[in-house]
UniProtKB/TrEMBL annotation:
Pfam families: Flg_bb_rod, Flg_bbr_C, LlgE_F_G_D1. The basal body constitutes a major portion of the flagellar organelle and consists of five rings (E,L,P,S, and M) mounted on a central rod. The rod consists of about 26 subunits of FlgG in the distal portion, and FlgB, FlgC and FlgF are thought to build up the proximal portion of the rod with about 6 subunits each. This is Flagellar basal-body rod protein FlgF. It comes from the Bacteria. It comes from Variovorax gossypii. Keywords: Bacterial flagellum, Cell projection, Cilium, Flagellum. InterPro entries: Flag_bb_rod_N, Flagellar_basal_body_rod_CS, Flagellar_FlgE/F/G, Flg_bb/hook_C_dom, FlgE/F/G-like, FlgF, LlgE_F_G-like_D1. Residues 81-146 form the Flagellar hook protein FlgE/F/G-like D1 domain.
Length: 248
């Protein structure tokens, strides 16, 4: 028996999943530091006596586009962008580490240095906390300094700590459901890399190309229509075969 029906069904299912990934990319075209999601698929031959051209579609490990996004100058002291390859380290709710390129930082009510999403930034010795009411500056090497707002002399500057900057291999990272990247299962946390540097007063934007993403959405819609047409063809062929058997 020809498995065309199941082949088309698997193709339509995977196209829907790919369309969801593309739609997520489009939704984050303006999200700072966002890395475009890549949906990968592979063909799996149908095992049996069917035609050798029949193949199912199966999803493989999803990936991400690690190319750098555009830099936008803001002039804000708490805005930083990683220069070249590398990641900022944030603390997750379970106390672990995750990696991000989001550099529009803020100071929480408790004095913690966090991302705009409220993720605490990690330093070499844990989360960083600055004195209340102080003016913060971040050097290119990640050194965080705080100056008393009432002081205008160098003696009023205190070193809070150094941001932990890492640069693991892209193949060692996987994206979580929260959009943050983590080391793959079984891998230890990434070590600090002194070669990673920051640029202050700028924010890295999303690396999603809106034109290419829109074209991909249209292509996926056409592909889904083709798979649905195959399902209709398989149903029509089955009905014709039943009629022949009934009147045979």
């Amino acid at each position: 028996m020809d498995r065309m029906l199941y082949v088309a069904m698997s193709g339509a299912k995977q196209v829907m999943e790919q369309q969801a990934a593309v739609a997520n990319n489009m939704a984050n075209v303006s999200t700072p530091g966002f890395r475009a999601q890549i949906a990968n698929f592979r063909a799996v031959p149908v095992v049996g006596q069917e035609a050798p051209t029949r193949a199912f579609v199966a999803a493989t490990t999803p990936g991400a586009d690690f190319t750098h996004g555009p830099l936008t100058e803001t002039g804000r002291a708490l805005d930083v962008a990683v220069s070249g390859s590398g990641w900022l380290v944030v603390q997750t709710p379970d106390g672990g580490e995750a990696y991000t390129r989001v550099g529009n930082l803020q100071i929480g009510a408790d004095g913690q240095l966090t991302t705009m999403g409220g993720r605490p930034l990690m330093g070499d010795n844990g989360a960083l906390t600055v004195p209340p009411g102080s003016t913060v500056s971040i050097a290119s090497n990640g050194l965080v300094s705080a100056r008393d707002a009432a002081s205008n002399v160098l003696t009023g500057i205190a070193e809070v700590g150094r941001l932990k900057l890492v640069n693991p291999q892209a193949t060692e990272l996987e994206r979580g459901d929260d959009g943050l990247f983590r080391m793959r299962a079984g891998q230890p946390p990434a070590e600090a890399d002194e070669a990673v540097t920051l640029v202050s007063g700028v924010v890295e934007g999303s690396n999603v190309n809106p034109v290419e993403t829109m074209v991909a959405m249209i292509a996926n819609a056409r592909s889904f229509e083709m798979q649905m047409k195959s399902l209709q063809t398989a149903d029509t062929n089955a009905q014709s075969a039943n009629k022949l058997l009934a009147y045979g």
